[in-house]
């Protein structure tokens, strides 16, 4: 659904990543009037052979309204594609809610979430929840990974971010409207499982860090979106992934292993003719363990499309 902090999930995983799905399911959309459109030119790559073309597009799972990005080379690549591939195809909200409830609820015999946190992190958790209009015990019966996710998701509407403006929502709607084949590299259950199966100590560490950085969520996400809009994958990759890589266990599960599997998928897909538009969290397309880096191990070159 979470990488470096939950924000990597929001802007880059994803999703889970992470996951973006939860943002769509549980974060209220912003209610402010839509601003005038601003131009954005996110990075786009292509992998080709004689009869197969695969476009790679990095996404941000939640955006503020008013960014104009689904145009120019991005829209042209989408229009040329007969298949659209996302990290996952969003299930119905009721299905998501059932999966989340089952995975996120702590066993009855477990101590309260607050008791699992280091004592010096407990006041910050209470303060973060109070700022959201919630009691200090609101998340006590949930797993630490879910509490971290909610603390990263819930402020977004107040900060002007609207889940309905996310890249995947737009691409999914466009694919369905154009009757394109729509596929997912993973399932919602798999993405939730990435977090739910993390050792509890790592989940608590993740939550403690999210609480510590709670007041920085808005500025950090704004920075990521600006870098994404400017088509600067190197800067975006550093922002998204640098801190996560300081926790190798998280980086392996949420980033490197997934990127390797997706590169394997692309390598296999190159054996079939056609044109494919792949859209995954932008953090997966940056850095030394990016999807492109793993594609190189298959002797496949992803070339940046300049536009």
Short summary:
By secondary structure, the protein is an alpha/beta fold. The protein has helices at 6-12, 20-26, 72-80, 93-104, 113-116, 122-131, 144-153, 167-177, 188-196, 200-212, 217-229, 233-241, 248-269, 291-297; strands at 38-39, 44-48, 52-59, 67-68, 83-88, 181-186, 274-281, 303-304.
Description:
With 307 residues, this protein is an alpha/beta fold. The chain has one domain (6-304). Helices cover 47% and strands 13% of the residues. It has a six-stranded mixed β-sheet with strand order 6-5-7-3-2-8, sandwiched between helices. Strand 2 and strand 3 (52-59) form a beta hairpin. The radius of gyration is 19 Å and the shape is globular. The two termini are 31 Å apart.
Secondary-structure blueprint:
Elements lengths: L5 H7 L7 H7 L11 E2 L4 E5 L3 E8 L7 E2 L3 H9 L2 E6 L4 H12 L8 H4 L5 H10 L12 H10 L13 H11 L3 E6 L1 H9 L3 H13 L4 H13 L3 H9 L6 H22 L4 E8 L9 H7 L5 E2 L3
Parallel strand pairs: 1-4, 3-7, 5-6, 5-7
Antiparallel strand pairs: 2-3, 2-8
Helix pairs in contact: 4-9, 7-10, 11-12, 13-14
InterPro entries: TraB/PrgY/GumN_fam, YbaP-like
Keywords: Signal
Protein name: TraB/GumN family protein
**How would a crystallographer describe the biggest sheet?**
6 strands, mixed
Described by the principal axes of the CA atoms, the overall outline is: globular
Strand order of the largest sheet: 6-5-7-3-2-8
Count the helices. How many? 14
SS class: alpha/beta
**Cα-to-Cα separation, first versus last residue:** 31 Å
pLDDT < 50 stretches = 1-32
């Amino acid at each position: 659904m979470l990488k470096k902090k939950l924000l990597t999930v929001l802007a880059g995983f994803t999703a889970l990543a992470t996951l973006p799905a939860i943002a769509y399911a549980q974060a209220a959309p912003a209610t402010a009037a839509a601003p005038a459109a601003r131009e954005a030119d996110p990075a786009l790559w292509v992998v080709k052979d004689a009869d197969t073309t695969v476009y790679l597009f990095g996404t941000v799972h939640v955006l503020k309204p008013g960014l104009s990005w689904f145009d120019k080379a991005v829209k042209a690549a989408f229009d040329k594609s007969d298949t659209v591939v996302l990290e996952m195809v969003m299930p119905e909200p009721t299905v998501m809610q059932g999966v989340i409830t089952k995975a996120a609820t702590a066993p009855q015999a477990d101590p309260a979430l607050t008791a699992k946190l280091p004592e010096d992190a407990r006041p910050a958790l209470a303060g973060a929840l109070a700022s959201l209009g919630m009691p200090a015990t609101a998340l006590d019966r949930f797993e630490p990974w879910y509490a971290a996710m909610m603390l990263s998701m819930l402020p977004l509407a107040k900060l002007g971010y609207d889940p309905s403006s996310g890249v995947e929502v737009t691409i999914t709607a466009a694919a369905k409207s154009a009757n394109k084949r729509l596929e997912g590299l993973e399932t919602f259950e798999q993405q939730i499982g990435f977090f739910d199966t993390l050792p509890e100590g790592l989940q608590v560490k993740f939550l403690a860090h999210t609480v510590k950085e709670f007041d920085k969520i808005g500025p950090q996400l704004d920075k990521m979106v600006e870098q994404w809009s400017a088509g600067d994958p190197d800067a975006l990759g550093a922002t998204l992934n640098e801190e996560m890589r300081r926790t190798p266990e998280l980086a392996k599960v949420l980033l490197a292993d997934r990127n390797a599997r997706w590169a394997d998928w692309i390598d296999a897909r190159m054996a079939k003719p056609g044109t494919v538009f792949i859209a995954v969290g932008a953090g997966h397309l940056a850095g030394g363990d990016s999807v492109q880096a793993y594609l190189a191990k298959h002797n496949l070159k992803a070339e940046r499309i300049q536009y």
